[in-house]
Fold this sequence. Notes:
This protein is of the alpha/beta class. The protein has helices spanning about 1-15, 35-40, 55-70, 80-95, 105-115, 185-195, 195-210, 220-225, 240-245, 275-285, 285-295, 320-325, 325-340, and strands spanning about 45-50, 75-80, 100-105, 140-150, 175-180, 215, 230-235, 250-255, 255-265, 315-320.
Amino acid sequence: MLEARSKVLCKIAGLVIGCWFCGAFSTASAQSWDELHKLALKEGGTLNFYGTLAQINAERILPVFEKRFPGLKVNHVDATADKLAARAITEARGGRVLSDVFQMALENVLQVIDQKLALDWLPPEAAAYPANLKGTNWLAADMVIITASWNTNLVKKEDEPKQFDDFADPKWKGKLIAEGRDVELLIGLARHKFKNDEKAFDFVRKLAANNVEFHKGHSELAEFLVAGQAAACVTCYAHHYPLRIRKGAPLGYMLTEGIATITANALAKDAPHPNAARLFYRWAASEEGQKAYAAGGRLPPHPKVEPVEKIRPATLYPIGTDEIKEWRRYEKVWKEIFKLR
């Protein structure tokens, strides 16, 4: 009688951890990877991974997981983050949950969380991460760094920017390019560096006075710099530069500070393969998994795992949950100052 009642209570509460009678779902955090692996094989050996990993990265990362846990197969549902979120929401409204793990831009992970499609659960490996790289139901999986870069033929060594603030100097007038959609620059500076909206707005006004030329696409920005069509880029992706530099391109990039946009993991609620989902989540969050992400070309957020390329700045301003909630307000100011549509 007591056992039956405990099972019912566990089901009602949606508890995964600490329920003595809930079979394969009990003490998920306390279980070893090997135990989760065995349970994952019993539920079919499949993981439905709704992830935005580019194929060039997925082909190097996901097979490492499959090799580490023989018999498991990752079904990578590949699309842009907005389309993956829309797909998951549509499936849930139709009464079907097909996803096991979400891995996409944090803003889109928050979309599925708002629709109550994610479990309020973190793997024990999350303890190693700083508070600004996790929530109660999401954890950073990798990051993209927005930083400054420049053409070394056009920018003297003594003029190389050491921080974003340097671009407020009138000497940069007519020499700068950027991505018009990179509101993250304003948000990161306002919320983290200056901790003051007005100081950040003042910087952006000075930046706008230097006649920044906007282009769509960060790869295009990098090629403009390589070709010498601009002296410096205010909002470029750090990972675009090491390879180009090795090939002889006259480029430099800033490693003192940068804006971190987060790709996050979250567990799908009512996932068809819950143990495979938890196993992948734990592995991806661990030092072992993060090293695989680094080797696969991604920037690991785990504090103890260094990226293969030197692209993680000394100081990071992450765009987390609180920043995303304020996105529209900052975007409005950004567009007004730069006169963007």
